Amino acid sequence: MKTLLKSKIILLLGIVALWGCEEDVTPLRHTAPQVTFPVQETSLTAVVGDPVEFRADIESGDKLTCGWYVDGTLEASTPGMTYTFSAPGDYEVRFEARNGAGKVERSYAVKVADVLEMHLSVGDSTRIVRRQLDILKVMAIVDAGSDVVHEWKVDGEVKSDKAYFDTFDLPEAKVYTVAYAGTNAAGTFRKSFEVQATERPLEISFSNEDATISCKDGAVVEIIATVKYGGTGVQHEWKVDGVTVSTDAVFSRAFDGAGPYTIAYHGVNSKQETVDRTWTVTIIPSGALFEHFEDYTELPKWWTLKQNTPGIELADNPKPEGINTSLKVLRDNVTGTGGTSGYFDLKLKEIPVDKIDVTKYTGVRFKVYLGKNKYYPRVEYAGKKYASVTKPQFKDEWEVLEYKFDSNLDATKNLTFRPMLQENGNNIASGPVTETNTRTVYIDDIEFLE
């Protein structure tokens, strides 16, 4: 078997006569083609990607049709052909010269071997620098060869089988070892390099992101500072009205008096990167707790039952956490699909004076759990529907709503709770029960406010 080297291999099959494979001569009669083949070897070898020159030389013959065929496909119609094999395998290369007087042909069995020449987009680098959480992007480039199987490993764990590796996001600030292997029939190309993931800038999240925190007189405010990135050597400092009160990640302090108070946080790491945040704490005047529902086995007579179906009833706390860990609460539920406000009445005249003298108060406050419903509860008194002082937050957790009336309460009247209203004060529209329209609201810890 004869080997075709990387340099151009010339198959000398004769010297081309002046007439060659031309058809512009019209002789009186055809002259049979004559071709000599000095290279008698019919089994040859070549390499993927290397150009190979095939040439045929015709000694005689007029009005010839010439052709070079690779696996039956015509690739050239001239005495010479330069051909590059793009994939390994066994090929038949056939030359044919013919006219009306005869035909000459020769076939060669060419065995093409694969080759593997590669490099990575990082070049000769043994260490590159990227930032923590950045996506590592590197390409394996095949310079010569075919059918390459790719494998990328990070710290010994296989992460990708694609030539373009862009699926790893460097989660930690550390040095990673990246190893690549590309394999085909010719062998394996390997290269390893390190990736130094540098720490991201200092970033801290807080358990309470509200700029203003409202709390009752004497209540404890807790804020947790969680370092997300850049935590090397981080130090915390909490101040209240300019005075340092804590150097822990957790701030916890009881507030009493009139207020308001200013909480200031300052965090700094070893690179002198800083995070600063402030909150204003306002003190909510204590109200007169009227109902907490914890000790009831049934609702007392001052609540109007079955104004809707089923209406109000005692129920288990659907989310006993956060600001309300009570076990029992008041549930308002309206079955069906029609529009409703979910209303229910508190009959003030039925409340004993020795329990609470409602005439002293001009407002009401209660905890409410709306779930994922987009309801805007109102309280109706003396023919007017009062909106809450602050709008619901819709955080799928218990929250506090407060209502201020235009005058002191009259013990002969009712307070009508309408928890299922739209923002404009209209009833919720007709429609099926959905995740954001369950037609159910929970209420607890009702207080009267002076």
Helix/strand layout:
Elements: E1 2-3, E2 10-11, E3 34-35, E4 43-47, E5 51-55, E6 58-60, E7 65-70, E8 73-76, E9 80-84, E10 89-99, E11 102-113, E12 117-120, E13 127-131, E14 136-144, E15 149-154, E16 157-160, E17 164-168, E18 175-184, E19 187-198, E20 203-206, E21 212-216, E22 220-229, E23 235-240, E24 243-246, E25 250-254, E26 261-268, E27 274-284, E28 288-291, E29 310-316, E30 328-334, E31 344-347, E32 363-369, E33 378-381, E34 384-387, E35 399-404, E36 414-418, E37 440-449
Parallel strand pairs: 1-4, 2-5, 4-11, 13-19, 21-27
Antiparallel strand pairs: 3-6, 5-9, 7-8, 7-10, 10-11, 12-14, 14-17, 15-16, 15-18, 18-19, 20-22, 22-25, 23-24, 23-26, 26-27, 28-37, 29-30, 30-37, 31-36, 32-35, 32-37, 33-34, 33-36
Describe this structure in words.
It is found in: Membrane. Keywords: Membrane, Repeat, Transmembrane, Transmembrane helix. It is a multi-pass membrane protein. Residues 49-112 form the PKD domain. It comes from Alistipes timonensis JC136. By secondary structure, the protein is mostly beta strands. The protein folds into 4 domains: 2-113, Immunoglobulin-like, CATH 2.60.40; 117-198, Sandwich (Immunoglobulin-like), CATH 2.60.40.10; 205-284, Immunoglobulin-like, CATH 2.60.40; 288-449, Jelly Rolls, CATH 2.60.120. 0% of the residues lie in helices and 50% in strands. The protein has a 6-stranded mixed sheet with strand order 1-4-11-10-7-8, with no helix packed on it. Strands 28, 29, 30, 32, 35 and 37 form a 6-stranded antiparallel sheet that branches. The chain starts with a strand and ends with a strand. Residues 3-20 have low confidence and may be disordered.
